[in-house]
Amino acid sequence: MQVWLVVALPFVIAAATDTFPAPDRPVAGIISPLYSEEAIRDRNREAQRVMDRLGIKPGVRVADIGAGTGYYTVRLAHRLGPGATIYAEDITPEYLKQLKARLDRERIRGVRLVLGEPRDSKLPRDSVDVAILAYMYHEIENPFEFLYRLQPALARGARVGIVDLDRPTQDHGTPPALLRCELAAVGYRQVDFVSLAPADGYLAVFVPPAQLPPVEAIKPCRQP
Fold first, then answer.
1. Which CATH number fits domain 37-217: 3.40.50.150, 3.30.457.10, 3.30.750.80, 2.40.50.100?
2. pLDDT in tens, 170-202
3. pTM (2 decimals)?
């Protein structure tokens, strides 16, 4: 079994943490390492449709950000096969411990476990072609700083797929208009949006900016 714990070397891309504006809306707390029952999600073809829409195929390097107990990580591994580059990132050590046990149990190889921080995924520079953030965007402590620090990890032509529910952030969702506004504030551009019905929520796809805006130019967005 090959499962690595990745510790990325630090790099400076902005000024001190407190220079980033706080989001102008509630931030939900982390309450669980999984969104809902995996069997139900599979019956509704959630992961299959998300991976198809994002063009996940062998050779694509993928990060499952906020991986929890690995719903997407496991399905990515099955699709991408041996030799794949998959990062499973989470900020909760216990969740990563549970995920490692699952990968060992299911004999899944090639997943790199990454212990991130609330405002920084800690992914290696230029390492990711597709990042998936499933049902966790509303839990990010400061989305502006998080997205700013994520950008160097995204390779040229990379995409960010965000799966979430269309409801207020305090109710563990993100209204699509708010999501577009917050990502645009950091220079990310939406290129796709689709409802996942009969699965829950939506998939919104963004491309990162080639050049990040000045931190002082980032303006918070008001929740509708």
1. 3.40.50.150
2. 999 999 999 999 999 999 999 999 999 999 999
3. 0.91
